[in-house]
Design brief:
single chain
Length: about 90
């Protein structure tokens, strides 16, 4: 019988990846570093699943020569607008 922690982890993986076609994700189903690098899961999800901090996540990515996830231009603009509005509101 699997250990309770492994059962919880397997459930979390299936929930996190419920919207993904396993043929697309392939061997990466349980590879949270690769999933984060591809932008498929958040930094927080990867860190929680691996039980590590952000610096360790970055170290693991660097060791495998994986890039940081990229934000598309439209999302970057939206985030910049929110930040400018927030900073502008504080200056009043």
């Amino acid at each position: 019988m699997p250990k309770p922690r492994n059962m919880i982890l397997e459930y979390a993986v299936s929930v996190d990846l419920a919207g993904y076609d396993r043929t697309t994700v392939g061997a990466a189903v349980s590879d949270f570093v690769l999933l984060f690098s591809n932008g498929d899961i958040s930094r927080t999800q990867a860190m929680r699943r691996l039980g590590i901090g952000y610096s360790e996540l970055l170290d693991r990515m660097a060791a495998r020569k994986l890039p940081l996830p990229r934000v598309d231009d439209a999302e970057a603009e939206r985030m910049a607008d929110i930040l400018v509005a927030f900073l502008g509101a504080g200056a009043r």
